[in-house]
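Handout, page 2. Input:
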Amino acid sequence: MMIFEFLYKLYVNDMRLKQIIPLMMTRLFKILPVVLIIFSSCSKDGCNQKMAFNYDPDGDSEETCVWKPIDVKIAFNPMVGDQPLNLNEENMVNGRAMKMDFYGIYFTEIALQLDDQIVLLRNDNEDCVTATSDAILFEDVNRVFESSYLPSADVVLNNMQFNIGVDTCRNNGLDPSTQLSGPFAPHVPTMYWSWASGYRFISLNGMVDTSANADGSDMQNFEYHTGLNSLLRAVSIDLESRELSANDLIINLNVDFAKMLEGVDFTTELSTHTFDNMPLAEKVTENALNAITLD
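Output:
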């Protein structure tokens, strides 16, 4: 209160302040509407696109939006039913004990359906033969596909699409010895048939109980290797019209190996290299379509 009393007395006793303050107030009231108009205009001209870097909830303009790439991460989770798959650990598949020691599956031409547009997650400077950015060799040490998408407007993510297997362009035209790294480079164990044309699409190795009573008394090796262009399959995953944010997109998919091997008779069907047992290769391929689901 003492400060206000001092200022009031100063104002009453100082004739100059009496002249200056009304002038300042007059000018302030002249300037204030202009300031309010400017701030109001800025708010209205703000970016109204939620996916934009500079999204303004009060904005009504698309022209002022600043766009940046959205990080895309797709995690493929190895499962046996509702349990995580761990290599070299016993799991029950088709009522029998199984130990998987390796799995490798190619997922290629990974794309997003944004509204009605299909966006292939491939770098613009890559051609179909040498492209690597839209593919993953899914294995125990490599479970996450990473990419990015540069939006230009708000969109709704309807589904994602990809192949199980290597698309025909690369399966026919790519020599793995020309690849120094990436999903199509030479691999141990191999994912390429040097004696035939193209890559293995699905490669599953391990041991399974082949005993007549499924009592675990007779564990034998199994090898399921599929390939050839005729076994390339396309998958579409419904993403339930998901809205995107300006930061990142994370999708979790479960790959259920119990479903992939559903209906396989482990007492007799222990091996396919596609050419030597096409019915079994086809069975594993068709099962794979139903084995991949949204987490």
